[in-house]
Amino acid sequence: MPQPNILWICTDQQRYDTLGCYGNEYVSTPAIDELAADGVRFDRCFSQNPVCTPSRASFLTGRYPRTTRCYQNGFDMPDDEVLVTRMLADDGYTCGLAGKLHISSCHPGRASDPHTERRIDDGYSEFRWSHDTAAHWPTNEYHHWLTRRGVDYERTPVEGSDHVTTSVPAEHHQTTWCAERTIDFIEANEGSDRPWLYSVNPFDPHPPFDPPEEYLEPYLDDLESVPLPNYRDGELDDKPALERLRDDQGFQNQWYPEMDEADHRLVRAAYWAMCDLIDDQVARMLDALEETGQREDTLVVFMSDHGEMLGDHGVYRKGPYMYEPAVRVPLIVSGPGVEEGVESDALVELSDIAPTLLDAAGSETPDRVQTDSLWPILSGNSDPDSHREDVYCEHYDSMGAFDDHSSPYGTMIRTDRYRLIRWHRLDTGELYDLESDPAEQRDRWNDDAYAEVKTELLQRLSDRMFETVDPAPQRKAPW
User: Fold this and answer.
1) Which domains does the chain have, with CATH numbers?
2) Over the stretch 252-298, which tens digit does the pLDDT of each residue have?
3) Environment class of residue 134 by beta-carbon count within 10 Å: exposed (0-12), middle (13-18) or buried (19+)?
4) CA-to-CA distance for 376 and 335, rounded, in angstroms?
């Protein structure tokens, strides 16, 4: 099979249950739903960290966050790490990016370079960078685009909420800008004799919750039907470490007690509205592939870097939490060589994507890659419901919140039935039986009836931590 083009769409902070094809009856996501129907939908895909930079460093290299030495937001990706985009560029691909990358420190107050994100040799020959919707950086190309249109990015508070605003109309939105740049690239490569990869990385649906007004309005017409967060009074009482963990995001995770039911519903509606906008822009990109005759030659990947708590378990946004909404994400793949209409129940990791893309391109996977290709499932050559026995996630103070050596360093193992989280510096953990408690409301860490299960899972977690030891460089001699 010739090397396929690759359209790689990665949203920011989009949990798995935000699409119609994943069972959400409220959102409007026909384009992504159709993409799933035409390809393989992975129902149990997990991020290797519930925070942006560590997750992105992992899935872009096929290595675990601590192995990349990029296990916190605010870290710089080391120069000797090799992204899959660099590997594919070396094998003849033209690679481009629109939107966010965030594998190095990216803060407007950084003394060394306040103007953009530091880059390594990442393989991107086109780099249309826009970290988010803020105008902090003079190199934020999205704001150049707004300036040429005579538009300021402004937010308008929604009456009755301290947490939801509306933003610019969809035609001026950053997600739309990402789609525009992608369409430009697709059209420019029509008829090219070289394969291409384009990374489309919009900032949405990452907070602040600020969809265009026209996308929020349909939800306001029937706000009472929007479900409340998954939270049971008293479910947090047996988690003595919770307050320490909540501090990792400070005020952001203190919203819940101050909010009423209408506000909870409004935040959820705003988040879903942002996902609806993403779907409309995905449709435009897929249309561009069709119109340029490249759809049949293009592998399309849709995913997100991690999830969003969205009020579940009394928590908003992200942080050290490793509940299902924080670490389970959508993953859909469609295109040449991919089976159609497959719903995979396999346990998979985002870190498996790098070797998958290398396999799809017919490129060699180097020994430094630690994870396993999904191409056998995608191509119909292996059981779609079997890939891993468990998935692994880590949070080594990934928000960089603490300086007093009492940071919440956590690791997680998730099997078919159980989720175990060990908080290494807090002498505690969490254990959930997902068969009897799929909502994860009853912590079994101190339940004697689960003592043997806990011991077995701790052993498995230890093995997975061992497997993150860097396989590079390779041994050269017996001694």
Assistant:
1) 5-389 (3.40.720.10), 393-466 (3.30.1120)
2) 455 677 788 999 999 999 999 999 999 999 999 999 999 999 999 99
3) middle
4) 14
